[in-house]
Amino acid sequence: MASVAPACRVKFTSLKMVSSPAASATRLVRWTTSIAAEGKATLMQAGRNRIRQWGVMWRALLCLLCVLGAANAYSASKTVLVLGDSLSAGYGLTTGAGWVTLLEKRLASEGLPAQVINASISGDTTSGGRSRLPTLLKKYHPDIMILELGANDALRGLALASTEDNLRSMIASAQGIGARVLLLGMQIPPNYGADYARGFSALFPKLATERKTALVPFFLEGVAQRPELFQSDRLHPTAAAQPTLLDNVWPKLHPLLTRNP
Which residue numbers delimit the SGNH hydrolase-type esterase domain (predicted)? Predict the structure, then answer.
């Protein structure tokens, strides 16, 4: 049986191994270095990919949080304070027939959680509303105030400057606690005096622009032109007119209910 001497070198020609130890070592070092470099590059690329993946995940998470925050803001219950006179108090109507009650029903049907506080009093003026408002704001902390006052000032021929000052003060007080204000504009017939009538109707858009409030230009639009929609006193709308009054208010109120704080 033949034996192999320890010092004998065996050449595996199929692998084409050369006999130069130095050259083989050099190629081995280069090959090892190449493998190490490639491994390092692969690890670095994997790291960069992982960082990008985490970045995408964090951005997606932030977007989700923003959406959830917006949804919470929309779904949070709002308190709506209606400060008005007989037009909002439902004068001469059966209980539940006024536009404010219809507003509560529409809010429920639209799935908009809100508590409506109707602080309207028949015969009230801007002066009366101004005196009552601080207590109402402190008690209810409304998110939105619908201001429907001024008609009785005009019917009594009160000074326009006083009406303007009272309305401005009420708007500022509500905005001072962070409430959004929806001002309901009013008009009176020219038989009260053309100049007075023009000056009165101009108060509402003027204050809305000045104080940056939402505005319904004419609360009785679509009703004032139809005598059959008034009670026998020719001053107060009937139950049949109340849905029209709500429809005049709704397009301006709805954005305030759904807008972010």
Answer: 82-241
